Amino acid sequence: MDFSSCTNAQIFFYGDSGEYGTQNSFTGGISTTATANLISLVRDGSGEDILRDAPERSTLTIKCQIRNALYEGATGDFTVTTTSSGGVDLNVVTGSGETITPAGFNNQAPIITPLSLIAGDATDLKLEFVISNPIPADGKIFLEVPDTFTNAAGVSIASSINIDGTFDVTTTTSTAAVYDNTMKTSGGSWLIEIARKNDGAAVAKDVTVTLVVSQVTNMQFEGASGEFIMIKTTLADGVTAIDESSAEADSIGLNGPSVTIVPSGWSGVAPTVVPL
Predict the structure, then answer these.
(1) CA atoms of 63 and 26, how far apart (whole Å)
(2) How far apart are CA 184 and CA 93, in angstroms?
C-alpha cells in the first residue's frame, strides 16, 4: 500500500452522525504529512482534549486517500500510535490487516480474436486487454483457450504491442486432446503461460496490451467458441494476481467474449458434381 497521497486527512469523532460522524465535530487544526508507509497527523493545539473517560468522544475516524497494493494479498497489520508534543508514545494499537483482491482490467473485458474465423484453420490468436495495474518486467500473463478449439499446444508469441522484451511460452492442458481420424472428439482446455524474461520495461497501468499468439487450431465446425473464462496477469511467481478475469471468488474481471467460427470452404477447391 502507498500512503503518500494522504496530504489532506479528514478527522472526526466516530458515530456523531451516521457511520463516520460529522466532519466539524473534531475541533482545532491539524496538519498532515505522509510517506509511502506512514501518515502523520499533528494537532495545532487549538482544539479540545480527547478524553479517555468519554467513549463517545474518544473514538476517531480518519479518512484519507491512499493507494492499495498493486496485486492481491494481505496488507499486513496496521499500527496506530499517539504521542505527546514531545514525541513520547501515549498509546500504541495494532489493527488487523486487510486482503487486497486482483483488479479487473479496468472493467473492460479482454478481447481474444482468432485472425481466421474459419473452422479447422490453424491461426494466430490476438489477445488485447487494458491493465489496471503495471505488469512487471518479469511478470506473467495467463490465457485459457476453451476446449471447443481443436488444439492450442506448442504456441509462441508472434508479435506484441505496448509490451517489450522476450517471452517464454508454455502450454498445459487438463485433458489431452483425442482425435478420431483427425476429428477431435475430446480434450482441452489449454492454459497458455506467457512469462516475461526480465529484458524489457514494466508496462505502465492503464495501457492497452496486445499479444499475438501463434498458433492455435479453430474448432472444426461452425458455432460459438464459448467465453474465454480465464485471463490474468501475475507477479513472477505465477500465482499472485494483478489483474484477473476468472471463476475465482475474488475475481471482478469480465470474461473474454465468445467468437463465432464459420464453416470452411472445401480448402478453396470447388466441389465437382458429375452426373453418372
Answers:
(1) 13
(2) 62
DSSP-assigned beta bridge partners for residue 94: 79
Condensed to tens digits (0 to 9), the pLDDT of residues 69-104 reads 999 999 989 998 988 888 899 889 898 999 999 999
Tell me 67's DSSP state.
B
CA 195 to chain centre: 16
Integer angstrom CA distances of residue 111 from 101, 103, 126, 180: 22, 17, 8, 32
CB-neighbour burial class of residue 185 (10 A; exposed 0-12, middle 13-18, buried 19+):
exposed
Separation of alpha carbons 177 and 194, rounded Å = 21
pLDDT per position as a tens digit, 150-199 = 999 889 999 999 999 999 999 999 899 999 999 999 999 999 999 999 99
The per-residue DSSP string of 171-240 comes to: EEESS--EEETTEEEE---EEEEEEE-S-SPPBPTTPEEEEEEEEEE--SSSEE---B--EEEE-TTS-S
DSSP state of 17: S
CB 218 within 8 Å of CB 120: yes
Contact 226, 148 (CB under 8 A): yes
C-alpha closest to that of 146 among 57, 225, 61: 225
Cβ burial, residue 61 (10 Å; 0-12/13-18/19+): middle
What single string gives the DSSP state of each residue in 92-104?
EEEE---EE--B-
